[in-house]
Amino acid sequence: MRVTRQIEQLSKSQLTEIAHPALYGLDETHLVPFEQFLLTSATATAFKNMQQQAQSDGINIQICSAYRNFERQMAIWDGKAQGKRPLLDINNIPVDSANLTDEQLVDAILCWSALPGASRHHWGTDIDVFDANNISKAELQLVTAEYIDNGPCALLAQWLVDNAARFGFYLPYQPDQSGVSPEAWHISYYPESSLFLSQYRAESLRLLLSQAEITLQSALLKQLDKLVEHYVFYVASAPKSSNKYSNNLLEKPNL
Ligand SMILES: [Zn+2]
């Protein structure tokens, strides 16, 4: 198991209280390399199948972001909380954090960034995609305008709505169906991610964040249950998985 700096700070007895470290971005031994990314092997296989079908429909689905570990998510969080990274509102307008209380700053960051330990990108089942026929990864900003109307990824977005479920993928972040803002680019391999979500525990995240040296720690811990409810559990419902997907992933010792 590759350990992060944060985890090294946890005592052994505390670590054993986190039943499935992989759900919080603390373990990547269940993942396999795919291009320059890490995914669960079932997600990688399903994605490859979907990519081939899309290709024959004239759409070049490529990944721009996949697995991120706890430490990486915390660097993003700290950067925004400390004003070192731009903070944008729901309309992508820069927010001046100077006049915000800690609680308001937490909410502002969570508009576009996940709480460390609470990102679906920790799981290896969730990926951000774009249409490489129409835009390069370097140009891509991952904003809604790119995925609607005549945007470069609009065809891809519609193709996903029509076809993704056949390959085991769906969009967890949709208007009025999720605490996280709608993200037409974020897809999830639901046969596994639904299982992961059912095993996710706010108490494990509390243990982790109370040990990490994270900016805005006390504001986070004060409202953690509410945040987990809103940003982790409040997602669009996944299609039902067929029995062929009911493997024993969570029984693996490291997960
Ligand atoms: Zn995403």
TrEMBL record:
Pfam families: VanY
Gene3D superfamilies: 3.30.1380.10
Top-level taxonomic group: Bacteria
Database matches in InterPro entries: DD-CPase-like, VanY-like_core_dom, Zn_M74/Hedgehog-like
SUPFAM superfamilies cross-referenced by the UniProt entry: Hedgehog/DD-peptidase
Domain D-alanyl-D-alanine carboxypeptidase-like core: 39-191
PANTHER family cross-referenced by the UniProt entry: D-ALANYL-D-ALANINE CARBOXYPEPTIDASE, PEPTIDOGLYCAN L-ALANYL-D-GLUTAMATE ENDOPEPTIDASE CWLK
Protein name per UniProt: M15 family metallopeptidase
Organism: Shewanella electrodiphila
